[in-house]
């Protein structure tokens, strides 16, 4: 069994929304973010925290990677959120607006002091200009940091940019975060698509994210799950091509370069093909 963990579809839901917490148990998502930050009104924060902890403790989310997004560092809720989430022991704690490697180390220290179990990882949200400029240091700051999560709404806001099809205004930021994650050897998931009724726009953005190298996409509505799962999984054709390419390589053992479907194949292409098959197998294992 490969160690690759699929994160094609990672669905946010307000932890204050009992119906959404219930619905998530039935959805074929790879991950769930129980949100305490932007989706929860100030007067609902404390109850939402208790609901997120109860959801984690329920054990009712099956194979889905279960995470809690706490309120940001420096807010009045952050410390209590972090302690409660650490003690609940989800798969990860998602922290918004992480701005430096020092903050990552401080978060990890606080999680450990609060008794977070070993399996509870940190996911850092990259959603400010300073985080983009310090992305590599953030990504490398701790072994406990497993995933970078793009916060494209905050990023667009902070840049005084606009949401446009193709995302040209934020492409340099997306690429910088991707470079940092890959250099650090950790996963990275793309930001959300706000128009839950615009399926074509959403699918185009999924395709773009996949082509850029993202592992998956954060989502805000159940209607986005299927499209993300398909976009971030290798297609049947990609799996067949990966198998064929590896076979061609093995048939030409020792030659250093062969061709498959008329194209040059070197060792690096074989590594990519093996990664494709690892992802495919990990998805099959999840769905089994
Ligand atoms: C966007 C929504 C407010 C729309 O909600 P609603 O009008 O209720 O949608 P529907 O009527 O179409 O819902 C159909 C059913 O699906 C359930 N539902 C809806 N959304 C979710 C969800 N996210 N998770 C689970 N289940 C969900 C409804 O309850 C209906 O169920 P049923 O009646 O039983 O069929 C809403 O979708 C929503 O609140 N989405 C999440 C918003 C959120 O979490 N935002 C914060 C994260 S985004 C962000 O901040 C990213 C980052 O920080 C950045 O800067 O970009
Ligand atoms: Mg945000």
Automatic annotation (TrEMBL):
The keyword Lyase applies. The lineage of its organism: Bacteria, Bacillati, Actinomycetota, Actinomycetes, Propionibacteriales. Its cofactor is Mg(2+). PANTHER family: CITRATE LYASE SUBUNIT BETA, LYASE BETA SUBUNIT, PUTATIVE (AFU_ORTHOLOGUE AFUA_4G13030)-RELATED. GO terms for molecular function: lyase activity; magnesium ion binding. Residues 8-222 form the HpcH/HpaI aldolase/citrate lyase domain. Substrate binds at residues 69, 127. Mg(2+) binds at residues 127, 154. Keywords: Lyase, Magnesium, Metal-binding. It comes from the Bacteria. One of its GO terms (biological process) is oxaloacetate metabolic process. This is Citrate lyase subunit beta / citryl-CoA lyase. The keyword Oxidoreductase does not apply.
């Amino acid at each position: 069994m490969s160690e690759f963990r699929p994160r094609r579809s990672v669905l946010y839901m307000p932890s204050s929304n009992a119906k959404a917490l219930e619905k998530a148990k039935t959805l074929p998502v790879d991950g769930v973010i129980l949100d305490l930050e932007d989706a929860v009104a100030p007067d609902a924060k404390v109850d939402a925290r208790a609901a997120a902890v109860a959801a984690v403790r329920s054990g009712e989310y099956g194979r889905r990677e279960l995470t809690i997004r706490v309120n940001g560092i420096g807010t009045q809720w952050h410390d209590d959120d972090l302690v409660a989430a650490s003690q609940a022991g989800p798969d990860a704690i998602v922290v918004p607006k992480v701005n430096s490697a020092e903050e990552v180390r401080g978060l990890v220290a606080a999680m450990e002091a609060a008794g977070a179990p070993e399996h509870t990882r940190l996911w850092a949200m990259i959603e400010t200009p300073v985080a983009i400029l310090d992305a590599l240091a953030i990504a490398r700051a701790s072994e406990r940091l497993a995933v970078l999560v793009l916060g494209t709404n905050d990023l667009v806001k902070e840049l005084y940019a606009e949401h446009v099809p193709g995302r040209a205004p934020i492409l340099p930021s997306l690429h910088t975060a991707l470079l940092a994650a890959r250099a650090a050897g950790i996963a990275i998931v793309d930001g959300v698509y706000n128009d839950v009724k615009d399926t074509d726009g959403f699918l185009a953005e999924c395709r773009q994210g996949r082509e850029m190298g993202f592992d998956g996409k954060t989502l805000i509505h159940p209607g986005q799950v299927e499209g993300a799962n398909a976009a971030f999984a290798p297609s049947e054709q990609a799996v067949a091509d990966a198998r064929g390419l590896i076979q061609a390589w093995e048939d030409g053992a020792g030659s250093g370069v062969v061709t498959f479907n008329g194209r040059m194949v070197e060792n690096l292409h074989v590594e990519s093909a093996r990664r494709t098959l690892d992802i495919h197998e990990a998805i099959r294992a999840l769905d089994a």
